[in-house]
Amino acid sequence: MSSPDLEAQATLRIKDALDAAIQRTGKEEFAKIAGTETSVLDRILQSEGEFVPIAIITLACQINRSHNDLDPARSSISECLRGAILRLPAHGNRDGTTPPDDSTPRSRRARFSKSQQRAGRIFDPTAFRVMEFVGSLFTFLVLGYFLGGIALGPLFGFVSCVGVVAASPWLAPCAGSGIGLVVGSVVGLAYTYYYFVKRL
């Protein structure tokens, strides 16, 4: 797999998801798609404390989801990774994680590209949509807080304020900040309606 990929320590959830995907595709087929060896899969499933590339775990969850597995611990990458320890991979190839004939970056990218074509997109698009939605709502509230104190407050006869100070507790909201938060919440509700009703 690609070397920049994060790794997760194999918990019972991760092993269960991998085992379910392997049973559905066959061990050799899964190892071929994931770009690893069957011996590596055996070691992950049988040993304690092994670290697994996130891409392999995501692939397993996607295979389980494509087979209508209703258990989120096996079909959702976020649920599968819950409670797992994540780390950046060590420099160099881990023992057995990449076949000898796939040692060059170009060959690893080629195999990874084939894996994506055969198994579909490797990242869960639902997770990205949720992150985008939450980020947008947070932006509306932050902008409402600052613009309310600076611009909306004076319009209603209140003193203009920035809403932050240089010392603890850092936040110093004023009446305008509260008005801005209310406006930001209304805009957030309108965006929620647009996002889930009109866009999806």
Describe this structure in words.
- The structure is a single chain.
- This protein has 200 residues and is mainly alpha-helical.
- It has nine helices and three strands; from the N terminus they run E-H-H-H-E-H-H-H-E-H-H-H.
- It has helices at 12-25, 27-34, 38-46, 54-66, 72-75, 77-80, 105-119, 125-155, 175-199; strands at 7-9, 51-53, 86-87.
- Strands 2-1-3 form a three-stranded antiparallel beta sheet.
- The longest helix is centred in the C-terminal third of the chain and has 31 residues, at 125-155.
- It is elongated and about 70 Å long.
- Residues 93-103 have low confidence and may be disordered.
Task: Determine the fraction of residues in helical runs and give it as a percent range.
Answer: 55-70%
Mean pLDDT: 78
Content of β-strand = under 5%
Inertia-based shape = elongated
Major sheet summary line: 3 strands, antiparallel
Q: What would you call the structural class? A: mainly alpha
Strand order of the largest sheet: 2-1-3
The span between the termini is 33 Å
Helical stretch tally: 9
How many individual β-strands?
Answer: 3
Search tags:
200 residues; mainly alpha; 3-stranded antiparallel sheet; 9 helices; elongated
Write the layout of secondary structure elements.
Elements: E1 7-9, H1 12-25, H2 27-34, H3 38-46, E2 51-53, H4 54-66, H5 72-75, H6 77-80, E3 86-87, H7 105-119, H8 125-155, H9 175-199
Short summary of the structure?
The protein is 62% helix and 4% strand.
